[in-house]
Structures are given as C-alpha cells and as structure tokens.
Request: fold
Amino acid sequence: MKRILFSTAAAVLLSSVFSMSSAFAAAEPAPVFVKRISDALISRLVKDRGSYKKNPAVLNQIVQDNIEPYVDFDGFARGVMGPYYRQATVQQRTSFAQTFRQSLIRTYAKGLAAYDNESYTIRPFIEGKDPSKAVVNMDFKTDTGTIVPVAYQLIQSGDSWKVRNLQLNGIDIGLTFRNQFATAVQTNKNSLDLAIKNFIPSASTSGQ
Reply:
C-alpha cells in the first residue's frame, strides 16, 4: 500500500513543484502556482487515460515531459549512496545515478498508471532561512478517503526548483533508499559494482 501511495503521489505531484519561483522572482504565490501546474498534469492524465491504458509508451512520454526534467537525480542518487559515494569511482557514481534514475522513472510511470482521480490540498507555504531550498507540504487524499501527508524537499536550480527528496506519511524516502542500498552492498559482499547493478529502490520500509 505504501509503495502504491508513493508511486501515485510522487508521479502526480513531483511535476508540480519543479518551477516554483524563488522568493526573489516569484510571479505568483507558490501554492497557487503549484496547484495550477498540478491541475494541468491531472488534466492530461484524464485526457490520455484511454491511450495509456492501451499503450504504456504514452505513460513513458508523460514521465519524460512532466517529471524527469524536474528531479535532481544526481543529488538524490548521491544522498542514497551515502558513505559509499566517497568510496566509489567516477564510473561507479555515474552508473549508479543512471540505474537509480531508471528505477525512479519506472516507479513514477507505474504511479501514473495507478492514478484514479485522487485529490490533494497544499498546506500554507512557509519560506525557510535558505532561499535556495524549500519544503512544500501537501495532503494527498486517496480514493478510500485516507489522507497521506507528503513533503517535498526542493533545491533551487537556476530560476526554478528540482526535487531532491521527499517524505511520505512521515517516512523519509531518501533515507529509506539509503538503508536499502547499504543492505545491497552488504548482501553483495561489499562489491559496489554488484550492488549498483542489482539495486532496485522500494518505497516500502521493509527493504528490497
């Protein structure tokens, strides 16, 4: 259940926070902007529902257009590698970033497929002390009426934002992935190459 919620919430909402203007260049209130972008994505999902139910390639295109460019995959991956990042060679870091990117993209695509007119509300936005970072809090309502809080940790990239990490229902997804990767390294007898090759992140807290 947690995996489904993560996939759906992330896929629907990650794309909404990518271009929130910073405090120095905000053209409109951040919550209003986020809602507008989210509604645009949802409109596309509703419009293309018949197409992607028949052809998964449509979902891949939606991910490519609306999610992939707006996630800091390299920074996210670096945090997931944790202490192993310093041990890794440049080639291993690059390989892990690519593997991690592909895994998350597949997760988001599955999340879009699971979307079924769920709704969300954006909590009042509070600016932090560091203008290059922000946290956007939302409440995601499932089709059963369950409310799941989602917090997006953003980092400024140029004049827009990218997602660096998120918390789902109090669970730090980046930390969860980091623990899973550490387990993968141990399982593969401390071989980073094998751990990177076999690593498949899961949003559940029970490991891979």
Notes: Confidence is low (pLDDT under 50) at residues 16-28. The longest strand covers residues 147-157.
